[in-house]
Amino acid sequence: MKESSNKINKIWKTVLVIPKGKVASYGQIADLAGLPGRARLVGKALALAPKEMQLPWYRVLRSSGQLAFEKGSENAEKQKGLLQQEEVVVLNNRVKLKQFGWQPDLAEMLMGLKY
């Protein structure tokens, strides 16, 4: 269980570094957390995050830029609203990754991610 909680903590720390107004994919978060191929674990970790952590879960999208939830669902509308508050454009349940995708540089990674 400790190994699993360590992986989840790495995911949370990575998500916390995504800047306001930017988004990342589940796979990208897994890769940056040192867990390549574990995109599904990222989704699980986001669901397990305590509310008081204020994890910006809504900044994590599918690799296509699509929101994580079914179009029109309550969760999709919540995610869309939170992204729009950060001036991320959401059209047809999708974000243009070329425009809003997070591409951290080495310095940002070294300063932001402390495992």
Question: Which structural traits does this protein have?
Answer:
globular; Arc Repressor Mutant, subunit A; single chain; mainly alpha; about 120 residues; about 50% helix
Task: Give a verbal description of the structure.
The chain has 115 residues and is mainly α. It has one domain (2-101): Winged helix-like DNA-binding domain superfamily/Winged helix DNA-binding domain (Arc Repressor Mutant, subunit A). The protein contains 6 helices and 2 strands. A two-stranded parallel sheet has the order 1-2. The longest helix has 16 residues, at 2-17. It is globular.
Name the strands of the widest sheet in spatial order.
1-2
What is the first-to-last residue Cα distance?
A: 18 Å
Strand content is under 5%
Q: So what's the CATH class?
A: Mainly Alpha
Compressed to H and E, one letter per element, the order equals HEHHEHHH
Summarize the structure.
With 115 residues, the protein is mostly helical.
Outline the secondary-structure elements.
Layout: H1 2-17, E1 24-25, H2 26-32, H3 39-48, E2 60-61, H4 74-85, H5 97-100, H6 106-112
